[in-house]
Amino acid sequence: MAVLGIPRNTIEILQKYDFHFQKKFGQNFLIDTHVLEKIVQAAEISREDFVLEIGPGIGTMTQYLCECGREVMAVEIDRNLIPILQETLSGYDNVHIVNEDILKLNIREAAEKYNGGKPIKVVANLPYYITTPIIMELLEGDTPLESITAMVQKEVADRMKAAPGTKDYGALSLAVQFYSQAELVANVPPNCFMPRPGVGSAVVRLTCRRDSKVGVRDAKWMFRLIRASFNQRRKTLQNGLHNESGLGLDKERIVEALEQLGLPATVRGEALSLEQFAALSDLLGPGGEDNDRKDRIHGSDQ
Description:
This protein is of the alpha/beta class. The chain is built from 13 helices and nine strands. Strand 2 (50-54), helix 3 (60-68) and strand 3 form a beta-alpha-beta unit.
């Protein structure tokens, strides 16, 4: 069976099927075996593992995953790639090819069916235009996850690891920090792909937490606050939260909560740490008026 990580083999299969890259799917196929090996090594795939692969393309990474894992579900949105995948993966009996949008797939159901509901490992070469929605859906969904090892745009990798007060810091940074521990595995230059993207890439591994990094009464409510805080980055936090109609928060209550946390009324969302957002969430959420958390947060960032 042809090793697809070698450029000439990739070109051969694409020409055979007269495949044309589609910009709307952000297709860039890996053509570097060293990077492929790094991804598999970082994902720590073993014969015990069920792996969900997002964006298999022509099956380059899928072949590696099938060699190492017990079972692989490869989810590909482009129906034109399905016949190619059926050929390139024909030698494996431990792969399921699914033609679907990952954001519409019931991943929990798949985990239950193929892994008995136990945490699964996700490996992905994510289209850059939709990386953040996919990562957020995986992290915030109810699917049991052990880890996510993904190829992403370098800029997205920077955002994942950004600290408060920096330009890259935002909802993605906080979600990654809350739900996982992030590790940069490798930087990947454009010449490792076909066609070459106009930006650099990076492989990141997110090891999902069994328990949350911080205690918060309602994580979904907290992330509604976080998103509202960053929707209008130049506005103060109180204005951002007040302007988000779905939250139903008046300015007086917001300012009062900020005062309890020792924060000025003019503070912006980008200045708050995860611990401070958790504390603010508990104060502003249902029943928060009676919840005094000053002691917990004062000095949390000392």
